[in-house]
Every structure is written in structure tokens, then in C-alpha cells.
Amino acid sequence: MFIATHISGFGGGASGTGLTISTNTSDVNILTLAAAAGYDNAVAGQEITMTINAGVTVSGSSSHAVRTGALHQHTTLIINNNGNINGYTGAAGSAGGLGAAGGVGSVGGDAIYIDTDTGGTGTLTVNNASGAYIQSGGGGGGGGGGAGRANECVDDGKSNWSCGGVTYTGSAGAAGSGGGFGAAGSTAA
């Protein structure tokens, strides 16, 4: 849940939009929320202030936790983080198939992603309170080496050979967290 306000006529004619994130949520797009609260992206010189309350976590479900959206190049954006901003944790790589390498883990998402930087006069300020966290998502670990076969042949003493195979399989990697790498999967043994 977020609380939005729009304030006009302060700072020499500039206008401002305040956004408050008061419950856990994911995939926040600042432009989308600000526009719903009255921010006009066609007007230069506006200010957006987004506050994340203490104890609230904004996370990424498939990518970035917070993204700015393509804000006007002369917008001033202030993010006051009193909670946690956690980017998406990359998925682990899969275990390899018979004789194949394991899958590659996916990259984690950014905590805060800035969509555009067009050289205008706008600024971005992030105020991170004591005890608050801003963490990118960790990348997923790569999958372990694939399964292999080793033939074992046994002579029954009468020149009759019996051959069978033993299969060895690697394991999938583990997902990373908090900006760390995921653990790699084990190789076939």
C-alpha cells in the first residue's frame, strides 16, 4: 500500500509529489505511482519524494525492487529509505544432463534502477536511515556438471563378459542473496 500526495506552489513555482510505502510490496515504479498521484512528466522542475517506512521491505519479484521510470530530465527525486530495498535474487542453474554441463544461474536484480540519465538538471538523492538496507539481488549459482556413465565389465570366468553402467549426476546451483553469489552445484562424482 502506498499513500500519495500532490503539493503545488512551493519552491518558486515548482510542484511536488509525495509517495509513502507503508506495507511490504514489490516491483515499485516511481513514475507510475507519481503519475497516479498527479505528477506531470511533461513539466520540468518538479520534485518527487518517496518514503519507505521502517519495517517495510520493497523487493523485486523478477528484476529490480525500485525503478525510477523515464522521469523528466529536470525532476528532483528523493528516496527516504527507513526499511529495506532488496533486488530480485537470481535463479539457480540447473543440474547438467547426461554428459552435459550444468545450466548457468541468472543474474540478480538491482535494488534501485535508474531508467534514464539524460543530462538534465534533475537530481537523485537517496537517504538511507540507520538500520535500513539497500541490497541488490545475488546471482544464482551455476549448475553442477552433468551425469556421466562409467562402464563396469565383469568376466564370469567362462569368457562371458557382462557390462553395465553406473550413472553419476551433478546437482543444481543455489540462489544467491543480498548481493552475494549463489553457490555452484556439485559436479558428478
First-residue to last-residue Cα separation: 50 Å
Low-confidence segments, ≥5 residues, pLDDT <50?
Answer: 4-14
Number of strands: 14
- Apparent shape: elongated
In N-to-C order, the SSE pattern is EEEEHEEEEEEEEEE
- Label the structural class: mainly beta
Portion in beta strands:
35-45%
Strand order of the largest sheet: 1-2-5-8-11
Q: Work out the radius of gyration.
A: 26 Å
Major pleated sheet: 5 strands, mixed
Helical content class:
under 10%
What does the model show?
With 189 residues, the protein is mainly beta. The protein has one helix at residues 30-36, and strands at residues 2-10, 14-21, 25-26, 28-29, 47-52, 57-59, 66-67, 76-81, 84-86, 112-113, 123-128, 133-135, 148-155, 161-168. Strands 1-2-5-8-11 form a 5-stranded mixed sheet, covered by helices on one side. A 4-stranded parallel sheet has the order 3-6-9-12, with no helix packed on it.
Spell out the blueprint of helices and strands.
Blueprint (H helix, E strand, L loop, with lengths): L1 E9 L3 E8 L3 E2 L1 E2 H7 L10 E6 L4 E3 L6 E2 L8 E6 L2 E3 L25 E2 L9 E6 L4 E3 L12 E8 L5 E8 L21
Parallel strand pairs: 2-5, 3-6, 4-7, 5-8, 6-9, 7-10, 8-11, 9-12
Antiparallel strand pairs: 1-2, 13-14
